[in-house]
Amino acid sequence: MRILIVNTSERTGGAAVAAGRLMEALNKNGIKAKMLVRDKQTDALTVASVGGGWRAQLPFLWERLCIYVRMHFSRKHLFDVDIANAGFDITRLPEFQEADVVHLHWINQGFLSLRSIRKILKSGKTVVWTLHDMWPAMGICHHPRDCRNYVDGCGNCFFLPNGGQKNDLSAAIWEKKQRIWGQGNISFVACSKWLADKVSDSGLLKGSFLTNIPNPIDTRIYCSQSKEKARESLSLPTGKQLLLFASRSIADPRKGIHLFIEAVKLLVERLPEAREHVGIVMLGGHAEDFEGQFPLPMYPLGYVSDERMIVNVYNSVDVFVTPSLDENLPNTIMEAMACGVPCVGFRTGGIPEMIDHRVNGYVADYQSADDLAAGMQWVLSETSREELSQAAVGKVHRCYSQSAVAKRYEDVYRRALSERYK
User: Rounded to 5 degrees, what angle do the CA atoms 91, 173, 125 make?
Assistant: First the structure.
């Protein structure tokens, strides 16, 4: 069985990381897997690119221009939607032709167009699609917030100027998707139970196979190590308890930095001694912009892409705090737990599936800075760090190990192949 994993980027973004980890997990468990991307960033032999250099960005630029015009030349929601009106035909590539299963992941921003997907389905290949957000089940958006229009046709899209109209761009793309999705037998996989429940309501997935399988992680890389050595390597203080906030872009409003700042202030009010004994590690772009906004010492590390350095960051801290407002199944929580770090996050998306409340971390009430502060206080001073750490590692090994996830995907591939040949 030969699997072709298709994702826009090789390494940039959570979906890229998850897709790459799945390829590695499959290969380690006897299933031949390659990856096809638009943006290739390493010299890995198992990763192929559509090529083209700067020309590979032209479909992306054309799509953004078309969206910019439809947004009445406003940049407000320019990257919140995708219309997939331009992309690459991958059906002619040898990697595609050799594959038994074409496994789509995140294919937006000018990689695959709706026309490209139609050609894939018409090729007769078995297609599996892992959902990292809700775009395959929506008209044009990735995160519909509280909108339910996608159930039977989209329209009146709040991302469009003046809230859209009944037969707006979102409705038109939804109808296109409905025609295309109906031309092939796609097996859909959501990364979390929460996402599977959300997309199951979409008319675009009606009658399709849908299950949920978490992303895998290599527990030989992400594992507990010496905290002292980790802090020494990063020049972090050894005499403090450290909180970690991590995001590709710290300033992204969806990551909840404003609520984290508020929660830290509440924590210090309740634990005045925290001013002397607690610090904050910030991992991600623009971290330095938030210096001076916390009542605690802050240690900005900036954006880090080196995996071993990231492992050191996790091993250097005592708590990982993720106040994200909209998440599927965050790789960061999985990584932190694999390193034995208890996590605190809001009750949203797939986070409650990962953090077992008061067992390996703390699940706070959604958007409640007060409860987020209570969670940090509970982990720092009201429970056994060793017990939390062991519970976190145990959860990862049971649910997210490479062998466990690869086996579940193998079952999906075999089922999809058998359906094709019926």
Answer: 25
CATH number (domain holding residue 50):
3.40.50.2000
**43 and 131 housed in the same domain:** yes
Does residue 345 contact residue 267 with C-beta atoms inside 8 Å? no
CB atoms closer than 10 angstroms to residue 220 = 9
Residues 237 and 156 in one domain: no
The H or E element that residue 392 is part of is helix 385-399
Count of the separate structural domains present in the chain: 2
DSSP of 181-198, one letter per residue? HTTS-EEEEESSHHHHHH
DSSP 104: E
User: Residue 320 pLDDT > 70, yes or no?
Assistant: yes
CB atoms within 10 A of CB 276: 11
Q: Do 4 and 34 form a contact (C-beta atoms < 8 A)?
A: yes
114-137 residue pLDDT tens: 999 999 999 999 999 999 999 999
Report if residue 119 sits inside a domain.
yes
102 contacts 1 by C-beta, under 8 angstroms: no
282 with 358, same domain? yes
Q: What is the pLDDT of residue 353?
A: 94
**Single-letter amino acid, residue 157:** C
| Distance of alpha carbon 401 from alpha carbon 394, whole angstroms | 10
395 and 405: one domain?
Answer: no
**Residue 394: CB atoms within 10 Å:** 14
Query: Which structural domain, as residue segments, surrounds residue 264?
Result: 227-399
CB contact at 8 A, 210 and 190:
yes
Per-residue model confidence as pLDDT tens digits over 54-66? 889 999 999 999 9
Q: Is residue 222 part of a domain?
A: no
